[in-house]
Amino acid sequence: MSEAFTPVDPTPTNWRDPAMQKRIRRRYAAERRFRLIGLGAVSLSAGFLAFLLVTMVANGLGGFSRTELRLEVDLRQAAVALSAAQLAGPNAEAALAEVDFEGIVRAAADAQYGRRGARIFSPAARLVLRDAVRADPGLLARPATLWLPADSAIDQAAKGHGTPEATARYRQIEQAGRARTGFNTTFLTGADATDPTSVGIWGAVKGSLLTMIVTLLIAFPIGVLTAVYLEEYARRNRWTDMIEVSINNLAAVPSIIFGLLGLAFFLQFMHLPRSAPIVGGLTLALMTMPVIVIAGRNAIKSVPPSIRDAALGIGASRIQVVFHHVIPLALPGILTGTIIGMSRAFGETAPALMIGMRAFFASPPGGFDEPATLLPVQIFLWSDEVSRGFVEKTSAAIIILLAFLLAMNGLAIYLRNRFEKRW
To answer: 257-263, long-range: CB within 8 Å, 24+ apart, which pairs?
Structure first.
């Protein structure tokens, strides 16, 4: 016997009923709590980001400036060992190496700033003097007044972080009008050094750029073609399922594992040059490729099937459908995933440490096969120093790194919007 049908009560809901009003209040209260929790989460994230930026800017702005001291030098004695004709010849560097620029700076500093006056000048002062002579050989024939970099202690005193002794000494020099603070071009054009007043990031930035070029040239075409094959051509079976699972797992593998892979395969098996950008690029390409494949597959999958059907209906071949219609439509997503993957690779440190890109390099790399370091690794090395000068240089390098990452993400947004407008 079937159950009796129970008719629905046609009586309209009584919204003024106390029980109904209580349920509505609870519902609205839950919605308000959820909105407050979401607002709190966003505010907390923004607060941490603001704290990071303010801290880095406060600690790192000093890294973009350098204190210099005035020094009158007489290089006419150096002309005995060096002449303008020698500076114009093919052996100019060898001739410059014969001159005791350090002794010249020491003698002039002791004479003008008192006993042990050379200690207030940076060890890089002799290099600045040498470069001045190289640029103007006429200095060998006359006394000259030059501005040479101050020692790290004096430099920190000028920025308000010095010891009482260094601060007092700097005040004396400043009152005599023999000190000035200006933009530190060496920080943007130099390489690593043992003295914080003469370090630069160009060597690390150039190493990073060379490494990223190798990474992009390998990871992008292979990643995109893999995504196209898996989405458009591969049959659905257990082998393709296994490949998909493997790619997803590789995207979540810790970066240090790829560093170990690069150490074992590219260095120990293939015997490629250690610490070279080509090895770093190959290692980071292995790490970036799964991200590009996943982003490419999702972008290709989002292309409507009607596009494919319409192209096939007017006589286009399978490969024409893919490369003339599917990939152009999926390009915004592919480029966005590629740049995000490259940004992740640009900020990685562990793989570079495993393949030896952490050594001291006093000059920028000249090519893909020369030893180099990366900007994140340079930051790591400087953060291990105890000198206050290296602390501000570390923060300044972090600012440069964040600027690069923001620029890369901004480029991803621009490319995505650019190609979306096109279609």
So the answer is: 258/283, 258/284, 258/286, 258/287, 258/351, 259/283, 259/350, 259/351, 259/352, 259/353, 259/354, 259/355, 260/354, 261/286, 262/286, 262/351, 262/354, 262/355, 263/354, 263/355
Contacts of 185 (CB under 8 A, 6+ apart): none
73 and 125 part of one domain: yes
**pLDDT, one tens digit for every residue, the chain (423 residues):** 455 555 555 656 677 788 888 888 888 999 999 999 999 999 999 999 899 888 888 888 888 989 999 999 887 766 655 655 555 556 666 767 777 788 888 888 888 888 778 888 988 888 888 888 888 877 777 888 889 999 988 988 888 888 889 899 999 888 988 999 889 888 988 888 888 888 999 999 999 999 999 999 999 999 999 999 998 888 888 888 888 888 888 888 888 999 999 999 999 999 898 889 999 999 999 999 999 999 999 999 988 888 888 888 888 888 888 888 888 888 888 988 898 889 889 988 888 888 888 878 888 888 898 989 999 999 988 888 877 888 889 989 999 998 988 888 888 888 777 776 555
Q: What is the number of structural domains in the chain?
A: 2
Amino acid at 170: Y
Closest among 112, 119, 132, 276 to 195, alpha carbons compared: 119
Residue 138 shares a structural domain with residue 216: no
Shared-domain flag, residues 246 and 383: yes
Parent domain of 337? 202-422
State the Cα–Cα distance between residues 396 and 394, nearest whole angstrom.
5
Considering the domain architecture, whether residues 396 and 290 belong to the same structural domain is answered as yes
